[in-house]
Amino acid sequence: MERSLEKMRTEARKKIDVDACLVSGGKVEGIGMFGIPSCVAYYKDGGKTCTDNSECEGDCFTPDTVEIGTPVQGVCQSSEHDSFGCVSTIENGVVSNAICQD
Predict the structure, then answer these.
(1) Taking the complete model, does pTM exceed 0.85, yes or no?
(2) Is the Cβ–Cβ distance between 49 and 62 less than 8 Å?
């Protein structure tokens, strides 16, 4: 399994234009539970408190699973890959969805 995983990581690295990634403000990082390299773009408002997706470049979420309909304040995603694990998305000040993803 480890050799197969390293092969996947090596193949993924070959497909990344590192210079283009850096110029666009991204960073090459391992993502997901297997740490597969990708160009990760970061949002300028990442970490800002929010109550709705309209207040964020990405999603407004809480890094916990909370019952749908619960009033809550969240944070704006730092990057498009911030939602790995279990999170609850927030719309109009209440939890609208809870999801777990690897």
Answers:
(1) no
(2) no
